[in-house]
From TrEMBL:
Protein name (Swiss-Prot/TrEMBL): Aminoglycoside 3'-phosphotransferase
Top-level enzyme category: transferase
Pfam families, per database record: APH
InterPro entries: AGP_Transferase, Aminoglycoside_PTrfase, Kan/Strep_kinase, Kinase-like_dom_sf
Taxonomic lineage of the native organism: Bacteria, Pseudomonadati, Pseudomonadota, Betaproteobacteria, Burkholderiales
Keywords: Antibiotic resistance, ATP-binding, Kinase, Nucleotide-binding, Transferase
Amino acid sequence: MRPSEHRPGCVAAPLPASMAAALAGYTWEREASGESGAGVYRLHGKKDCPDLFLKHGNDAVADQITDEMTRMLWLVRYIPVPEVVQFVRTPDRAWLLMSAMNGVTARHMLESQPEPGPAVVDALAAFLRRLHAIPVSACPFNADHTVRLRLARQRIDAGAVDVDDFDDEREGWTAEQVWEALQRHLPLVPDPVVTHGDFSLDNLMIHDGAVVGCIDVGRAGVADCYQDLAILWNSLGEFGEALQERMFLQYGLAVPDQRKLQFHLLLDELF
């Protein structure tokens, strides 16, 4: 996890007895952003103890937190992710305690120091190549577009899609309109790799000019490479087309597949 925007002096989350003693003496701050529905807390200020992050949630959110924990334990063999310090699960609740990662987010780096923009993009592309080079045969998690389309349909039917958060190009659209637009891009022939699932500037940590890890890996799994490329490309959009183009070139794509790019941008709107 990373330093982010916090609400200082918050009340600590309810803790299982097995976790409470170890966290005594920490100062708690609740993050102003994070996985939808999850309580995300930064724990710091305990003498001679490292900073930690805690995610806590109930019901479906507990399932998402459990998914993230299992993926972190697998990914750590290949790329740097937060260490799972402790995990507790009951039938309807989950607590995930993680180490804090060094550095700042790629977004913070680009916003605070616009001049090193190309170097940041080069570091992001290098890390993405490293992630996508993990053997697909070794990955136990399937996150391909058929799985995500099924989940997207469930979210639409449940009224869980935040249409007010759509990109500017789809402002005023309904979730059904996004769904219909997705169908026009099918069938899709995937180029399967191990993906992060939400490879955005907010989820990539940079220190001394290099990406030192990624966070929020609950959607990780085998999927088309454009699952990650589309989200990173979209995140870079606010910093200019030159950086978007550089990202593709540094990744190794001189001519991006626009159909796949648009499909995954549409799909991401539903999550």
